[in-house]
Amino acid sequence: MPSTLYTDISLLVTNDETLDKGLLGELEGAAFVEEDGHISWLGEKSQAPDADHRISLAGKTVLPGFVDSHAHLVFAGDRSVEFAARMSGESYSAGGIMNTVKATRAASDEELDEGIATRALEMYRSGITTFETKSGYGLNVADELRSVKLAVQHTEDVTFLGAHVIPDEYKSRPDEYVSLVIGEMLEACAPYSKWIDVFCDEGAFDYDQAKAILNSGIDAGLLPRIHANQFTSSRAVELAVELDCASADHLTHLTDKEIDLLANSKTVATLLPGAEFSTRSAYPDARRLFAAGAKVAIATDCNPGSSYTTSMPFCIAIAVRDMQFTIEQAIWSATMGGAKALQRDDIGSLSVGKVADFVVLDAPSYLHLAYRPGVDLISETVIAGTSIYRSNK
Ligand code: NIG
Ligand code: FE
């Protein structure tokens, strides 16, 4: 396979802690070689070996591709009217999920597939190189099954979320719905899924239901993650830590005790800036998590109800402006933090042996991602050495 030397990089973010160059392992005037989809050499440009191709990135910043560890891309329909109502004072609740369930059930496979592909392309254009996606808008065996089957064509990180809410037809029989999820639905979906998730919150599933669901998923070979504390400080964080969930996501509300639990666990605390933005909720303060020593990720939560964005730069800008991340912490959380939330150590950083997933920014520093909110700075997105998006600016 031909090798490519990327050189004259103004600023390279490696996230390599062994370099002793700050949280982001920053190198100026660096270069690296990509071969066979991996980084085969990285260092000072004057020391760079020969390669088959040479690309100069003078004036540009390179960082590991963004890792979006929480998204809901399998859906049909639009809930912009609900968003507009919230902006005029109405509040968000889990109830709106059923509107998307109805539209998703009515959509053809082709429509759903095209929706996933369109949103995945938007993600690549925003610098995301790995994304997770959940089912959760089918909520019956056939529609959950086709959701995971379609999703797995687009990403390895498919999450079975049959336990998103109790669908209307089971409202008076919640226990029956839980039995369906952990029985026939899980059996059908597990072969196409890597993860299992549950929305453990007010208006969705309680601690006991969530525990039964996640444990059944674990027994079926899936790895657990959880929607926790979007509306209230419930027992979801306790459950996440108890079951060693890869990640506890949302965390809009957090007690000191819960922060302590997360900090002393392997569970990544994943914050979703787009969700507070789009539901006009108070933002959590990330300083509390960092001060306690928790591992933090930022994800888009792309979904039609509470966060219809595919833009990681937008989420980074909000995290910095409104959730008290430093810019360095936000960049780390959107790259390395996301990789940890997906339990991957071959992505999220750039050093010899890692997958060559990276983003080229049309800016002299990553600071511009927060400093120039809303401006498209993504010059190129590369996945495993292959350019999958190049801006024509
Ligand atoms: O992660 N909180 C639960 N699920 C989604 C929202 C789903 C919807 O409103 O359609 C979330 O924000
Ligand atoms: Fe979500």
Structure description:
The protein is α/β, with parallel strands linked by helices. The chain has helices spanning 80-87, 97-106, 109-125, 141-151, 174-189, 207-219, 236-242, 256-263, 273-279, 286-292, 312-322, 327-341, 368-371; strands spanning 4-13, 26-35, 38-44, 53-56, 61-64, 66-68, 128-134, 157-163, 195-200, 223-224, 226-228, 247-250, 268-271, 296-298, 358-361, 378-383, 386-390. The protein folds into 2 domains: 4-65 and 349-390, Urease, subunit C, domain 1; 67-341, Metal-dependent hydrolases (TIM Barrel), CATH 3.20.20.140. The chain is built from 13 helices and 17 strands. N-(iminomethyl)-L-glutamic acid is lined by residues 96-97, 100, 199, 227, 230, 275, 301, 303-307. Residues 96-97, 100, 199, 227, 230, 275, 301, 303-307 line the site of N-(iminomethyl)-L-glutamic acid.
